[in-house]
């Protein structure tokens, strides 16, 4: 096997009898990763949306070289030959790799940056991993991760800072995603060729099943790429440039719409709206300022996410108030029930048609009537209401209460 240095004029590697690079061979625990904070970077105008059009071309390795200037400081008087690589780990930020080297002369294994290891030695170790990832071979990935003699980093990166999870997500392999996630893969890792995450890959390559699985595993749908696009924004942008009338693109559009629905469900939390307060914008940009029933802060929400009946009422000019309870009931002129409502922010009670009253308040009132727990006050209100109806058509109303005694 070739020696460690790429420079073929050096036949042996200078090592210290007591390596200064610490040995750390702790297998990574199996766990489902949690959502990390959203990363915001400046948009890269040179990154084209059509980068996701050709996966095979897009996934090819390019030649960024890891700078490892400090490695020479670690060498000393003795030399050793490489036996094999027995572990790997990615550098912070996905900037490269380093490998755990087993030495032929019995030195303790030590970590060495990839640029100081012969390319054929690295290729022998890495080729099975990346072949399995780019073919979405779940069995091969599982076997490599299960190898007892190998402390392989599931978050290993290629020259573009991409991990195996990004490849299998773009290929739409749910089994591979599950295997990598269970092995501790970073669900929100961003590559160095555009800031794409696995969720961006699933969205861009139209893999709704993988998109949903990644979200279930805790992927953050609001992580942005280098252009400032979330996976949802990326999917919408691709849909926008996908022809509508072309039968060949019909399946593609359906897939994108499915991805968009899945991502929207994860981004927008659905809550009960108490009232619409204002509106702004037009067309796709139309928004309503809504007041939530749970007391959350008022929020501008896209029109398509607001219930149609609330929008209809708002546009018709109806006003909203908070009801404390129903205190009386009567039959209206149209033969339908009306309820006397006590308001929290109004001094006067008002008669309202049944459709304008909260069904829960009506139910509470009716139950109270049946159980006789509402006292003579409610009874008087009902009789007063009936007297008012009888006293119509110009007759003098009887303003006195009738208690039935």
UniProtKB/TrEMBL annotation:
Q: Which residues cross the membrane?
A: none
Record's keyword annotation contains Nucleus: yes
- Where does it reside? Nucleus
The Chromo domain is annotated at 271-300, 321-367
Q: Which domain of life is it from?
A: Eukaryota
Q: Span of the secretion signal?
A: none
Where do the ANK repeat units fall? 160-192, 194-226
Checking Pfam families in the record gives: Ank_2 (PF12796), Chromo (PF00385)
Q: Give the CC-aspect GO terms.
A: nucleus
Which keywords does this Swiss-Prot/TrEMBL entry list?
ANK repeat, Nucleus
- Would you tell me the protein name for this molecule? Chromo domain-containing protein
What organism does this protein naturally occur in?
Answer: Corchorus olitorius
List the top taxonomic levels of the source: Eukaryota, Viridiplantae, Streptophyta, Embryophyta, Tracheophyta
